[in-house]
Design a protein that fits this description.
The structure holds 2 protein chains of 2 kinds.
Chain A (H helix, E strand, L loop, with lengths): L5 H4 L3 E3 L3 H25 L4 H9 L2 H33 L16 H14 L13 H25 L1 H4 L6 H31 L9 H4 L1 E3 H7 L1 H10 L2 H4 E2 L4 H30 L1
Antiparallel strand pairs in A: 1-2, 1-3
Chain B lengths: L1 H12 L15 H8 L16 H6 L1 H4 L4 H4 L25 H8 L2 H8 L8 H5 L19 H9 L15 H7 L1 H8 L8 H5 L20 H6 L3 H9 L1 H7 L8 H5 L9 H14 L1 H8 L2 H7 L8 H5 L16 H9 L25 H42 L11
Helix pairs in contact in B: 10-11, 14-15, 17-18, 18-19
The chains are: A mainly alpha, B mainly alpha.
Amino acid sequence: MTEKAPEADGTIWVRRFDRFDRSLHILLMASFLGLSLTGVPLLFSDRPWAASLSRLFGGFRSAATLHRVFATGMLVCFGSHLARLAKRLFGDKEYGILWGPSSLVPQPRDLTDLVQHVRWFLGRGERPRFERFTYWEKFDYWAVFWGMGIIGGSGLILWAPKLWARFLPGDLFNVALLVHGEEALLAVVFIFTIHFFNGHLRPEKFPMDTVIFTGVLPLEELKHERPAEYDRLVAEGGVERLASPAPTADRVRKSRIVGTIAVSLGLLLVAFTLIALLS
Amino acid sequence: MRFGGVLAALLLTAAPLQAAAPPPKPPANDDCLACHEDPSAKRANGSSVAVDKAAFASSVHGAAGASCVDCHQDLAKTADFPHPEKLAVVDCASCHASEVADYEKSVHAAERGKSKASKAAWCTDCHGIHDIRPSKDPASRTNHFNLPTTCLKCHGNLAVVPSAGGPPVNQPALFHDSIHGRALERSGLKFAPNCSNCHGAHAIRNPKTDPESAVFRTKIPATCGTCHEKILAEYSDSIHGTQLAKGNAKVPVCSDCHTAHAITDSSDARRLAILHQCGGCHETSLATYRDTYHGQVNAMGFSRIATCADCHTAHQIHPAGDPRASVAPANRLRTCQKCHAGATANFSRYDPHANTHDKGRSRLLWATALFMRILLAGVFAFFGIHTVLWFPRSVKARVDANRKGRGAGDGRGEA
């Protein structure tokens, strides 16, 4: 199907994520996977697989160094996202990112969407008419934002304890170690189960939604999934502005490969984690 | 010999005539060797009765000019040769009274006392018979450097010394590879201990049941301390040593950490094993250690990270409240700095045994842990239910979409 030119089957494709967003997701994904694989063994250090995983990265010293390399990647990711937000806000005066239909900021609508969505789950109503970002996508976004602060902040403290100890009391390292581990556990299990399900693995999307890699989706799908956004775009005359060529077969194939690897690694790690947690 | 016998018989029958007949002259060594020097000399049952003349000559007894009948005393008055096969058991105590008295207290003697069939060692099993050499002779079975081989004849052979209840162990092999065994057998150090330095020579008592044994649990520190004098002094001063002196036999003694026979230096395996030695009693401390980076890295099998003794020391262990303790507030920073060069006083306030369940130890940590638990439970409860409810609906949506002939969701492959 994907090999067909858009004209061939009449599919119109529209852009959802630009190159910057897609690059950021790739970088976030790679650094998050790297951080998980080098960090999670410590949380389950009594399991044989933890030692094997750590040895795979060359032992605990080498794994610790790689953890910091991936952390740097994630910091770059976070920093460039903040920089872009600043540019959009102060440079382009795009105040719409702060509030309104295309903003990621939680709004009353999200609560009504959630209630309506649950009613739909139970067969007691229509599917909510979602806008550009659904409430669970906003949760994903803010969860990562919160996680950046908590895990990133505690991680930076643990990175150079002797330096920080010049200013901070030592018992703060105990707190940093605790929240770093617990919050990381939350992030790992959440991303590799809930985010994977919501974004990729649920039957409507299975095996994955490639929009985050290709950046584009068929207009029909947008209309079905985010009718409120579709209506707004039509009203604003933005559909034509967002129209894009269909993704090339090569890009779709690469997206699937990258996506499959990431999802497989994540599921494998979360399987080990859940077995360790529940046994 | 036969002539001698006949002569003796004649003399005896002539006794009434010759009232003051002299007692029979004891046979000289050469008289004995006349028969026993023959390597093929055997008893009726085929066992050898040959005596190696040269070996006897160079033995401690031969060199001292002892005669056969000094030991085989029942033959001293015998004039009728060949003498009966069954002789009295040689009594070493007739000369070596104190050694035999010691032996009688030993586990070897006790075992022999229990059963006639016992293979437990007695004098000749260790010392030999006619070729006994003094211990200072390098060829002696009981020479300092040879003794392990002598003990090993039985104690390396489960057919002779079956494992008493416990799992089969091979102490001699363990000893060979231990730091003591290598020092003794490879480096030839005369100060290195052999079996008898710990177990005794003649009065080898049962270390498990006999409180008089030099290696009975409570005696071990003193025994090791005969060589490791400074360590004994440190240990005796420590909480473990003082508790032992008060009769608390649960405290660790040398062998609990170092093992009895496989004593090695500070290998990586030892550094990992020590956790379980200390953790056997200090369970909470081990659990809280496992929650920290030190313990996590260690649990994965990497030993180059702080373990118990790195902070608490090996032998000078005192409670944290004791100003002599390496982990006492005044000494803690110096202890951290052993690994963390440049650490500051703030740094040393880190709690390497932080306990998230112990409100009294750190209220901040306890509250943070509680918050994290609620956060995790909340997030997973909410999205768990959300996902479980969504799943059947999502299946239905896809089925409906396929029925309509187009992909409901992706639309880029499934349709």
